[in-house]
Amino acid sequence: MYRLLAAALSAAAVTADMIIGPAARVACDFAVQANILLALVLAVSARRAWSARRPLPSGLTGAAVFYVTIAALVHHLLPAAASITGAPDTHPLWQSTAAHILHTAAPAAALLDWLLLTAPDRLHLRMAAPWLLCPLAYLAFSLTRGELLAPGMPERYLYPFLDAAQHGYKHVLGNALLLGLTFYALAVLLVAVDHARPNPVRRRTKTGFRLRPPVG
Fold it and tell me: 154 CB contacts (<8 Å, ≥6 apart)?
């Protein structure tokens, strides 16, 4: 039930932004893309757990947690990006609520699900590098999108630190390299925590019943 609620929360925030702002603009935001993946992973994981089927591959579930986490860190620690919908004053209450869900509530829910509802020792160090392929692809997409849009167009670059028109490609690629190293360190940290944390699933499945020898 928890996973379904968390999935519905992420999906509701994405849907709200899609309705408020141009869907094509909203879909270009990394946090939105990460939350779409998270909602799908949580929904499928909930269904598999309910039907007692094998869980999703750990590399996929770990990637979903990793992507919403780095999206949250970028939002909270780096210079503010443009409004996801491109019109921050259209529906301020709905937009602020959706932004809070995408960048704070959903990542927190994903981390809690990973820590409390999944078995440990399923992530491996070899997964860390492939997880970076998605942010790398997003970097290429963001720079290509900026080149294709007309100069001076508002929100040509969705994140200020990726604004090649203002900072130049050398500066932007330097920022991207530092972020990539930070993201890799975070991925390694997730793997280390996964191997160090206790197993909440094993504890939860204890029934308290004991087998007794047959009578007679």
Answer: 82, 86
